[in-house]
Amino acid sequence: MPHLPAPTAEPLAVLKEIYGYSEFRGKQAAVIDQVVSGGDAVVLFPTGAGKSLCYQVPALCRQGVGVVISPLIALMRDQVEALKQLGVRAAAMNSSLSQEDFIATRRALARGELDLLYVTPERVATAGFMDMMRDLEIALFAIDEAHCVSQWGHDFRPEYRALDRLAEAFPGVPRMALTATADPHTREDIIERLALTNAAVFTTSFDRPNITYEIVERAQPRRQLLDFLSRHKGESGIVYCLSRAKVEETAEWLNGEGIRALAYHAGMEREVRDANQDAFLKEDELCLVATVAFGMGIDKPDVRYVAHLDLPGSVEAYYQETGRAGRDGLPADAWMVYGMADVTQRGRMIDRSAAADEIKRVERAKLNALLGICETADCRRQAILAHFGEKHDGGCGNCDTCLSPVETWDGTEAAIKAMAAIYRTGERFGAGHLIDVLTGNETERTERFGHTAMPVFGAGKDIAPKTWQSVYRQLLAKGLIRVDHEAYGALKLEEGARAVFRHEQSLRFRVDRAPKGKASSGTRKRNDAKAALSEQDQSLFEALRATRTALAKELAVPPYVIFPDTTLIALASHRPGSAEAMLEIQGVGKTKLQRYGAEFLDTIRAHG
């Protein structure tokens, strides 16, 4: 499509002609109007809310090229390919380009032949790039993953700090900062660091209602993971692990269990890492086992699950990683196993880092906030949204604590005994040893340290060791005790423990659920548009998927770049009989109709 110059390019016309949608969602239209009219914007939308349209559409409506600053080369490649499939003139300029391709991109820029240019923040900071940009007409600057500018964010990247110079170097050019995850402190930092104090700020609910949240007590994590994955046969998803070694071990084990899995971490050869990411994007039935090195900005819309075998470092990280599921709006699962060892491991990583003390303090607070969500007996969605300053009434009906309400018990006396064990043993021991003391387990260590002679020895033998583990986890989550990682994980009392000892504060603890296998299909909320299709329409949907897969392989692009599942569901349901009728389907624009319409219409006719 030729670039549509202002003022003839109305945003709604661009949306329909290029993207195939008849209306904007949520606050997209307000953001786009702000930028098309020349204003700056800070956009805080959850994953799946359509942030990319907020800068792509204005770039197609305004004169000049839209410059998108993104931290990941692999992401640029995927987005550029997707835009080309829409008929948009897009290119990337990064270190992966050959000299020949780099020169060709510069020439296309100089001739005004690009609508969107994707670049890394490192390249923007160079004098050569800034000089090149000054010779061009620029429609806008869009700074994606803007939370990377903040040292309070969970993914701080120093090179983002240099982007504030865009305001002075290009006065009058609209600038946008976009992120899917930022607590109030990080939001303020984004506005200040990127010189966006006069920008309009657009926020929408951070709720992802199509994601089911589930956090289970760590028992047999591999067996628990297999039980979870059994719900997702034939679907794509991500399993996150903390270490590179665990990523590779888990991927190998899953393959041995008959689940096709690939590994992804920063220590792999770049060619292998890129090949595995490419396979994940292009295949429909693949499990990618990864460290947090994978995922930022990944556009694959049909990720049906995200599983965590290790605890993330913060609510922000958990929200962003789980948010990679269900970008298409269809039901998806976020599942995690969690135990005391996770807390100790994460805390040790914070204490041993080279960060300043203030940063460590913030990181500990963020970890504690996540522990609170893990141990809550209330709606998990309510707790997650509260962290981002958003109110939710609870009772979402789509998290484990709502689908199967948690029992609680008066744990005041148990808490006093648990904390007394910490105090009487000198605040020098971890949970495992303290539980031995409480349950009267005579071990070499309890004998050697003289703990068998203490009044607290055996004082809790009426409670099972697993319940004591839960008590210590919940005391930690409530901020009544802490882990001293410099003292090899010893538990220590916090000031708030005094009120419990004095019976000035009572405590209720959640009852841990017994490990179980597959979730009952009768209790899971699955507002799945695909499930609502008739048997005949389901058959057509699968045939349309096969057509899409064949086209994707022929063109060497991910299937969702051709059409997402939501569009295939609409095609199967409405069964358009002509090109004109197909153009009315959401997600079918003119370019895609011209390129692929005949194949999909043939498939529909064959199932008439």
Automatic annotation (TrEMBL):
<dbReference type="InterPro" id="IPR044876">
    <property type="entry name" value="HRDC_dom_sf"/>
</dbReference>
<dbReference type="Pfam" id="PF00271">
    <property type="entry name" value="Helicase_C"/>
</dbReference>
<keyword id="KW-0862">Zinc</keyword>
<dbReference type="Pfam" id="PF09382">
    <property type="entry name" value="RQC"/>
</dbReference>
<keyword id="KW-0378">Hydrolase</keyword>
<keyword id="KW-0413">Isomerase</keyword>
<dbReference type="Pfam" id="PF00270">
    <property type="entry name" value="DEAD"/>
</dbReference>
<dbReference type="InterPro" id="IPR011545">
    <property type="entry name" value="DEAD/DEAH_box_helicase_dom"/>
</dbReference>
<keyword id="KW-0227">DNA damage</keyword>
<protein>
    <recommendedName>
        <fullName>DNA helicase RecQ</fullName>
        <ecNumber>5.6.2.4</ecNumber>
    </recommendedName>
</protein>
<feature type="domain" description="HRDC">
    <location>
        <begin position="534"/>
        <end position="608"/>
    </location>
</feature>
<dbReference type="Pfam" id="PF00570">
    <property type="entry name" value="HRDC"/>
</dbReference>
<dbReference type="GO" id="GO:0003677">
    <property type="term" value="F:DNA binding"/>
</dbReference>
<keyword id="KW-0479">Metal-binding</keyword>
<keyword id="KW-0547">Nucleotide-binding</keyword>
<dbReference type="GO" id="GO:0043590">
    <property type="term" value="C:bacterial nucleoid"/>
</dbReference>
<dbReference type="GO" id="GO:0030894">
    <property type="term" value="C:replisome"/>
</dbReference>
<dbReference type="GO" id="GO:0005737">
    <property type="term" value="C:cytoplasm"/>
</dbReference>
<dbReference type="InterPro" id="IPR018982">
    <property type="entry name" value="RQC_domain"/>
</dbReference>
<dbReference type="GO" id="GO:0016787">
    <property type="term" value="F:hydrolase activity"/>
</dbReference>
<feature type="domain" description="Helicase C-terminal">
    <location>
        <begin position="221"/>
        <end position="370"/>
    </location>
</feature>
<feature type="region of interest" description="Disordered">
    <location>
        <begin position="512"/>
        <end position="532"/>
    </location>
</feature>
<dbReference type="InterPro" id="IPR014001">
    <property type="entry name" value="Helicase_ATP-bd"/>
</dbReference>
<dbReference type="InterPro" id="IPR010997">
    <property type="entry name" value="HRDC-like_sf"/>
</dbReference>
<dbReference type="GO" id="GO:0009378">
    <property type="term" value="F:four-way junction helicase activity"/>
</dbReference>
<dbReference type="GO" id="GO:0005524">
    <property type="term" value="F:ATP binding"/>
</dbReference>
<dbReference type="GO" id="GO:0043138">
    <property type="term" value="F:3'-5' DNA helicase activity"/>
</dbReference>
<dbReference type="InterPro" id="IPR001650">
    <property type="entry name" value="Helicase_C-like"/>
</dbReference>
<comment type="similarity">
    <text>Belongs to the helicase family. RecQ subfamily.</text>
</comment>
<dbReference type="InterPro" id="IPR002121">
    <property type="entry name" value="HRDC_dom"/>
</dbReference>
<dbReference type="GO" id="GO:0009432">
    <property type="term" value="P:SOS response"/>
</dbReference>
<dbReference type="InterPro" id="IPR036388">
    <property type="entry name" value="WH-like_DNA-bd_sf"/>
</dbReference>
<dbReference type="GO" id="GO:0006310">
    <property type="term" value="P:DNA recombination"/>
</dbReference>
<keyword id="KW-0347">Helicase</keyword>
<keyword id="KW-0233">DNA recombination</keyword>
<keyword id="KW-0067">ATP-binding</keyword>
<dbReference type="GO" id="GO:0006260">
    <property type="term" value="P:DNA replication"/>
</dbReference>
<keyword id="KW-0238">DNA-binding</keyword>
<keyword id="KW-0234">DNA repair</keyword>
<dbReference type="GO" id="GO:0006281">
    <property type="term" value="P:DNA repair"/>
</dbReference>
<feature type="domain" description="Helicase ATP-binding">
    <location>
        <begin position="32"/>
        <end position="200"/>
    </location>
</feature>
<dbReference type="GO" id="GO:0046872">
    <property type="term" value="F:metal ion binding"/>
</dbReference>
